[in-house]
Amino acid sequence: MENVRRYRALASLCRQQAAYRPLQSWDLLGQAEHFEHLAEAELKAHFDACNTQGADDAATPAEWQHTAAA
Questions:
Q1: Fewer CB atoms inside 10 A, N or C side of the chain?
Q2: Rounded-to-integer distance, Cα 1 and Cα 63, Å
Q3: What is the pTM of this model?
Q4: What is the CA radius of gyration of the chain?
Q5: CA-CA distances (angstroms) from residue 14 to 24, 37, 48, 49?
Q6: Mean pLDDT value across the chain
């Protein structure tokens, strides 16, 4: 999650610099978009890992019925 904060901070800095440097604004805005994309990919990977881990730990309904019948 720390990487997400860093990527978003870098994107914000690029957008701020784009406001003060009109000749480089398109390049800086492209960099900001790139950092936002990296942040979204990092978040997706984090939540996919969390959801996968939780799915492995949960018991299936068939296991619940088997345990209850015993």
A1: C
A2: 34
A3: 0.70
A4: 22
A5: 10, 14, 28, 30
A6: 85
